[in-house]
Amino acid sequence: MTSKNQDFVDGDIDLLIAGHKYRVHKAILSENSEVFADLFALADPHTNSPEEIATVELHDDEEPFKILLHSLYGHDTLDLADKYNIEVKSLHAKLVPFIQRDWPDTLAAWDAMEAHLAALEAKLQEDLKNPAYREDPNTTDVLDTILPEPASVIRFSTQYKPVPAWPLPRYLPAALYHLARLPPYVDVDDPGMNIGIYWDFNEIVRSAKRELLTRRQLMCLMIGIDNLRLNSARFAFEGFPTAVAEDGMASEAEKRVILKWWTEVGMKKILGPYEMPDPLARMRELTEELRTSAALLEGASSEFRERVRVVIDKERQKIWNDVVEGETFSLYMFFYPD
C-alpha cells in the first residue's frame, strides 16, 4: 500500500517502511542528505521496464520518519536527522515554530487550541456515523493521525540541548500538561493496554508514546500529576468556599446557593470522577455553567455570579502560570541526566 500522506504521484522512488510505501523525489532527499543520495545510487529497480519505480526498504520507525519527510518537503525528528546526515541546527530551527504553534505558552492560546480540537472531534464523531466515511481507506477514525503527540515533543525538547538548559523551551510545559491528563492505558505502542474495561470505544481518545520518555522525564510527569491533583483539591475544599464566604456584597441566601452548587457540581468536576487531572478544562466548564444554570440564575444575582466567575478564572490562570513557569512539573530538574 502507499501512504496517502506522502504519495507524490510524480515521485521517482518508493521508500518502504513498516509495510507502507512512500513515493518521494530522489532530488529533494538527495539534496538534503548524502546518505539518501548514496542509497538511491545503489538502488536496484528489480524491474523489466525503465518506467517502473525502484523501491528502497528502510528499517526505521514509521512515525518519526513521516515527520522527517514532512520537514524535508517544507511541512511541519531529529531522531533520523543524524542517521541521514541532515544538518541538525537548521532542521531544529525549522521545526520549533510549528511545535510552538501546537503547544502554546499562553492560556488564551491554549483555550483557542482546545476549542479547535473540540470542533475537530465533533466533526469526526459526525463523520463516523456515515458508513461511506468509515469504509473509505483514505479517512481516519482517530484524532492521533492529525494531531501532535506529546511524548515526542517532550523528547524533542532535550535533543541537541546543553545540560542544564534554561530557559525552558516555550512549548514544553503545554506538552507535559496534555500528557498528564491522558489515562495511562492509552498508549500508541502497547495495544494490550488499549483493551478491556478501561477502553470506551464510543469515545475518541488521544494517546501517547510514553516509552520515549526518560526516567527523569517520567518523574517530572508524575510530580506534575500529583501537583495538579493537590492544587485542585486545595482550591475545591479551601480556596473557593473561602472566597464565597468572604464576599461582602452577596446575601447569605446567595452564598448558600453558590456553595450548594459548588458541593454538588463544582467539586465533582474538579476532583472526579475523571481518571486524570484536567483542572483547566473543568474550571472552564464551571465558568460556563455559572452563566447558564437555571438554579444559579434564579438563586444568585448576575453580579455575584460574575464575581464567582472571576474567582475561578483567577485560579485557572494561576494553575497555568505554575505550569508554564515550571513549578507544576518541577522542571528545574528536567534537563539533568538520569
Automatic annotation (TrEMBL):
Every copy of the BTB domain together lies at: 11-73
What is the organism of origin for this protein? Sphagnurus paluster
What InterPro entries does the database record attribute to this sequence?
Answer: BTB/POZ_dom, SKP1/BTB/POZ_sf
Tell me the organism's taxonomic lineage: Eukaryota, Fungi, Dikarya, Basidiomycota, Agaricomycotina
* Pfam families named among the record's database cross-references: BTB (PF00651)
Q: What is this protein called?
A: BTB domain-containing protein
